[in-house]
Amino acid sequence: MSINSFGRLFTVTTWGESHGPALGATVDGCPPGVPLDAEMLQRWLDLRKPGQNKYTTQRREPDAVEILSGVFEGQTTGTPIQLMIRNTDQRSKDYSDIMEKFRPGHADITYWQKYGIRDYRGGGRSSARETAARVAAGGVAREALKVLVPDLEITGCMVQMGPHKINREAWDWDQIAQNPFWTPDAQAAQDWAAYLDELRKSGNSVGAVIEVVAKGAPAGLGAPIYGKIDTDIATAMMSINAVKGVEIGAGMGAAELTGEDNADEIFMGNDGKPVYSSNHAGGVLGGISTGQDLVCRFAVKPTSSILKPRQTITKSGQSAEIITKGRHDPCVGIRAVPVGEAMMACVILDHVLLHRGQIGQNRGPIG
Amino acid sequence: MSINSFGRLFTVTTWGESHGPALGATVDGCPPGVPLDAEMLQRWLDLRKPGQNKYTTQRREPDAVEILSGVFEGQTTGTPIQLMIRNTDQRSKDYSDIMEKFRPGHADITYWQKYGIRDYRGGGRSSARETAARVAAGGVAREALKVLVPDLEITGCMVQMGPHKINREAWDWDQIAQNPFWTPDAQAAQDWAAYLDELRKSGNSVGAVIEVVAKGAPAGLGAPIYGKIDTDIATAMMSINAVKGVEIGAGMGAAELTGEDNADEIFMGNDGKPVYSSNHAGGVLGGISTGQDLVCRFAVKPTSSILKPRQTITKSGQSAEIITKGRHDPCVGIRAVPVGEAMMACVILDHVLLHRGQIGQNRGPIG
Amino acid sequence: MSINSFGRLFTVTTWGESHGPALGATVDGCPPGVPLDAEMLQRWLDLRKPGQNKYTTQRREPDAVEILSGVFEGQTTGTPIQLMIRNTDQRSKDYSDIMEKFRPGHADITYWQKYGIRDYRGGGRSSARETAARVAAGGVAREALKVLVPDLEITGCMVQMGPHKINREAWDWDQIAQNPFWTPDAQAAQDWAAYLDELRKSGNSVGAVIEVVAKGAPAGLGAPIYGKIDTDIATAMMSINAVKGVEIGAGMGAAELTGEDNADEIFMGNDGKPVYSSNHAGGVLGGISTGQDLVCRFAVKPTSSILKPRQTITKSGQSAEIITKGRHDPCVGIRAVPVGEAMMACVILDHVLLHRGQIGQNRGPIG
Amino acid sequence: MSINSFGRLFTVTTWGESHGPALGATVDGCPPGVPLDAEMLQRWLDLRKPGQNKYTTQRREPDAVEILSGVFEGQTTGTPIQLMIRNTDQRSKDYSDIMEKFRPGHADITYWQKYGIRDYRGGGRSSARETAARVAAGGVAREALKVLVPDLEITGCMVQMGPHKINREAWDWDQIAQNPFWTPDAQAAQDWAAYLDELRKSGNSVGAVIEVVAKGAPAGLGAPIYGKIDTDIATAMMSINAVKGVEIGAGMGAAELTGEDNADEIFMGNDGKPVYSSNHAGGVLGGISTGQDLVCRFAVKPTSSILKPRQTITKSGQSAEIITKGRHDPCVGIRAVPVGEAMMACVILDHVLLHRGQIGQNRGPIG
C-alpha cells in the first residue's frame, strides 16, 4: 500500500509539491457510469482556493483541475482517474530566507531528519497545498455518491476559532455559505472577523475546530475491527495537514458522560427504521453506521509560518531567530472546511463499496 | 488488506469472539532473532485482566496466552506468530435476556443491521474482550522494540475519569503502578475510588481519558501523507472499543492556541540533537517524529451495559425497556490503559521497520 | 499487507510450522450467513492428507481442523474465521542429521541467509505442510461460493508426471476420483503407478503438472490492470510450495500460435450469452472472466528431500555430502491437486466480492 | 490497495487510456537522494517506442515523459513521483469500424460485460500502450537500484517467436542490442525476420517467449509465504498485456525432472559465498533469492487485432464478421522485452526495500 494513498476499494493517492510543476490525485476504484467532468470538480476547488478574502493566503492561483484519464464521453469508465492541477504562482523567492532555518512547529526539521533533503520552496510536500488534490478527489467521490446514495448530504463548518466557540443554540445551516468562515452562527462570524483581523495585523495566527456532518448515510456501513467507519473517518481527518485532534459524536466529551446519559435510546420511526433520542454516538456504534447523522470534529493548529520572531536552529545546527515572511493564512482552519468534507465523501464512498463487497447475503430486517 | 488487520510491515490481525472457543492475534512481520516466550506476553495480559479489583468486570478468566507458531528455541523466526487465548468463563446465560433487545449505545443493533446475524453472547466480536488479543500482540512489539530501540519506554495512564481531571502539577510517574486506575496523580486516585464506588453501586458507568506517552522514539519515524505516525497512532487508538476522540500533543486544545504560542521553539542540545522549549506538537511535525516524547490521549465512552433502565427496540421492531445484567466494568477506560500502550508499541515498531525500508540513503546530519 | 496473506476482500493468512504446536489460517472477509462447520472443511483436508497410499509421505497425522472463531450457530458471522490444525506427529529426530547441512534445491539455505535462524525440523515454515492451512481456507471459500455462485464447480487433476503427459483425447472427468494421482486418463494412472514405484524405490522423486478448471464462473470477474483474475490465479498457484511455472489457457503454448488460431471466435448462444469456438484464452480476456471455463496449469518441481547423495555445504561453509532420510513424497505434485483447487476457490470468491464492490451500476446487456 | 497498483514499499500505479489526453504512473516509495531526471527515463521509453521498424505498430508518438513531482534539484525526495506521457497521435477514426463489434481474443467484450461502458478508441485501458507507463516507472526503479545494488544488471531478450526457439548454445549477450527482436541468437534474428515479414504481409500475427535475467541480486530477497520473490516476479509478468504463462528457472520443464537432476548442488566459492552447479531454481529457493541469476520467462500471445476475418458478435448480440484495420504489431512480444525488464526492476527494488524493513537483526554468516 502506497504511503501516499488512503482507501480500500475507492483509493486516492495524492502527489505533488507546493512549488513543483503540478500536483494531483490518482483516484482508483470509482464505479463506472458516473457522470463526471472537470467543472464538477472545479466547483469544490474554487471553495478551497486561497486568495478569496483577506483571511486566507494571498497566493493567487486558478487551481484549475484537468481530468487526464478514466472518463469517456462524460462518464467514468471504472479505470483510474488522474486529476492534475498545474502550479502557476510559484514565487519561490519568498522562501529564500528560510532555506537554512527550520520553522518551529513546521515539518521542515523532520523532513530534513528523515530524508536528508530539504525542499524549502513553500514546504514542498508538507504544504497545505496538497489538500487541493484531496478536494478534487473528494469531488469525484461526491459525484459517485450522488448515484449510489442520492440522499446523502455532507456539510462542513467551523465551530470554534481560537478560544471562541459558536453558540450551538444559534445553529443555522443556511448561514454556512454566507460568511467567510463557513460557520452556522451568524454572530460568531461577525465576532471572529474582528478577532482575526487583529491577529492577522499582528502577524500571528490561530487554530480552529471544524465539524463535518453527513446526513443520509445508510445504516450498516463500516466493519469491525480495524475497518470501522469511525476509525476511517478519524484517520482521514488526522491525515490532513495541521490536524491535532479528532472526535466522533460526543468525542473527548464522552469521557464526562455516564452510561445512562451516553446511551442514545432507540425507538421505532414511522418509516419502520430505528430512531434515536440523541446522537452521542455520532452515528456509529461498534464501528458501523446507525443511519443517524455521521458527526466528526477536528482541531486544526495555527499556521506555524508567522511574522512573530521565534528561536530556532539552522541545518548546520546554529541557533537563529526566524520570522516567516510570505503569504500565509492567519487561520488555516478556514480552508480546511472543504477538505474535511472531501475526506468524509471519500470515506463514505469507500465504505458503500466495501459494504457491497462484504455482504453477499440479506441484511437484517430493520436496516 | 484484511479489515481485521492493522499495520504495514508489522501487521496484527485479531480474531475471536467473547464467548467462542478462543480469541487471539496473528502477528506477522516481527523481525527474526527477537527473544520471546509466552511469559513475556502473559505479563501484559495480567495487567489488562478483568476481575482484579471491584472496579473491573467480575468475569474471571486466566487469559493464558499460547504461542502456536513463529518462535523456535526461544527466538522469533521471522514467520507469523500465532497467539491464542482460550475462553474459559463463558457464562452465556447472563446474556439470555438480551437476545431479542438491542442495548442502547452498543453495537448490537448495527451488527444486526449489517450482518443480519446476532451473536448475543456478550457482544461477540464487539466485546472489549477483543482487546486481550491486542495486548498480547503489543507484547510481541515491545520485545522487538527492546532489541531495535532499547531506550524506548511506553507508559499509559488515566488522566480523567468522568468530569474529574488529574492535577498535572502533581504528575508522578511512580504513582501509576500504585493505584487501580493507573493514574499519576495520587490524590485523584483517592477521589476517583469514592466516585466510582458510588456509580458502580447505582448500576451506572462513566467515561475516561487515557494518555499514552512514548519516550525515546527516534526522530524520523513516519511518512507523509497517509503514513504519518500521528495518523497511525490516532487510527490505532480510535479502533479500540468505545473510543470516541483522539488527540496528539495539544490535541483539540490546539484550536485555542495562537501560532506564537503553539510553535515549539528549537535549540541545540548538548548531545548535538535538537531540543524544544515545549511539546505542543506531541512529538510529531508533518507526520514525522521529532525525537520528543510521542504523546497521545483518547476518550473512552462509558460502558453501555448498565443496570439503569433504558428505552430500546427488539429485533422484530417492538418497543422495550432494557436493563443489562451481567458482569460489567463501571469504567471500562481503566482496562483501556494497557490496550493503549499495546497499540502504541505496535505503531512504533511498524514505523521503525518502515523507516528502514523507506530510506536507503543517509539521513540528514542532525537526526 | 501481511506477507503471509493473500486476497483483497476475502483474505487468508496462513501461519505455523511443520513441527510447531499447530498451524492454521486466519480467514477474513467471508460473507455472513454461510453455513459452515468443521466437517465441511475436514473433507477437503482428508483428500490432501499424507500417508493414504504409498505415493505420499508416510507421516501420519489426522490433520483435524478446529474452527476457533467466526461461526455462530452453524453460520459464518462476517468476522474472522480462525482455523487451527494441531501437529501431532512431530518426529523431529528424523531431521537431526540435516541440522548443519543445507539440502540442495530446498529453502534451507535461503532461510538461513535471510533470517540467520534455522528451523531444521522438517523445513519449518517452508514445509509443504503449510498447504494444509490453504486447503482448510479453500474449504471456507467453497462453502461461500456455494451460496453466491451455486453453479460453480472447481476440479483439479494431474495432467503430467515427469515426462509423461496424459492423452487429452482420453479425458474422463469421472476417472479423477478413481486413482491416486487424480488424473482424468485411466491409462496414464496405470502407467504412472509403475513409473513412480520404481522412482520411489530408488530414493528419487519427480515433478508434475496440475490443471485446475473452474466451470460456471460468471463473466465480469477481475479488473485491469493489477487486479486481473488471471494474474491473481497465477499468483495464488505460484505461491504454492515447489511451483515453478503457471499457465492460463494456452499458456506457454500461446507463443506458438498465430493471431488467427489464437482468437476464440464468438457466437450467440441459445441462452442469450456469448459462446466461443475454443478457449485458448482460458476463460479470461484483458484480465476479466468471459464466462468460459477458467483454466490454469502449474508445474510442481520434484521434492528435494531424496535418498540420492548430493553435494552441499554446511552452515559453517564446509563441503559435505547429503542424503535426506525421513518420510517424503516421491511426487509431491499429487498432494498439490487439492491445494490448487483451494487456491482457485479463494481467488474466485475474492473476485466475486470485489466485483460487487467495484460495480455500483448496471453491467452491460450481455453479461 | 488500488487495483491498478503493484508493489508493497515501492508501489506503481499506472493510469490512462490509449486515446485519452495522457497516461502515466504514480510511483511511490522511491528512496530519497536518488539522482533522477526525465532523460534517464526517456532512454527506456525510446526502446519500447512503436514505429521504429516494420515489425512494430506504425503509430508514431514521441512518448515523451514528464516528471511532475517527487524530484528536487535532480534528486528524488522520498515523495511520490508522478510520471506523465501525453498522447499525441490519437487517430481515433481508425477504430470507428469496431465500435459495435467485439474483437475475438480481445478485452473488448469483457470490459463491456463488466463495466457496461466501451472505450472503443484503441482498446482504451486494455491497450498495450499502458506498458509505456510501466517502462517509465521501471526506469525509476533502475536508478534507485543503481544506488542500492550497484552490481545488478537486468536484461530481457526474446527466446522464441511462434514455434521457432533460439539455439541456446549460440547465446551471445552482445547480440541482443544488435537486432530488432532483442534475441541473443544472431541466426534466429535472421530467420525470424523472414518469418515475421510473411506473417505481417498476410495480416496475421504471432506469439513469443521473453526471458528476463537479473544478475547480481543479493541472496535473501523475498519472504515466505505470499511475499515470495518468484511469486512477485510471476505476478508482475502475468499482469502485462497478453501474457499467458510465466516460468521461473526450469519452469514448466521442472515437471519433467527427477529430484536428483533438479537439485542444484552447492559448493563454497572463492569469495566465501555459495556457488551452485546449475540453476534449475532460477535463483530462488523457498521464495527467497539465492544470489544466483534470477531467471524468468513469459509467453506473449499473438495480437488479436488482425486483418484475417473472424466471426464475432456485436454489442446488441448480432453475429458479424470482423477484420481489424489500423496499425498493429505483428509480434507484440517484441515490445514486451523492455516491459519485462521494467517489471523485474520494480520487483527487485521492492524486495530490497522490504528486506531492509523486515530484518532488524544480523543475517546469517553466509549471505
UniProtKB/TrEMBL annotation, chains A, B, C, D:
Q: Which reaction does it catalyse?
A: 5-O-(1-carboxyvinyl)-3-phosphoshikimate = chorismate + phosphate
Q: Name one GO biological process term.
A: aromatic amino acid family biosynthetic process
- Return the EC number: 4.2.3.5
- Give the matching InterPro entries: Chorismate_synth (IPR000453), Chorismate_synth_AroC_sf (IPR035904), Chorismate_synthase_CS (IPR020541)
| Flavoprotein listed as a keyword | yes
Task: Read off the PANTHER family from this record.
Answer: CHORISMATE SYNTHASE
What protein name does the entry list? Chorismate synthase
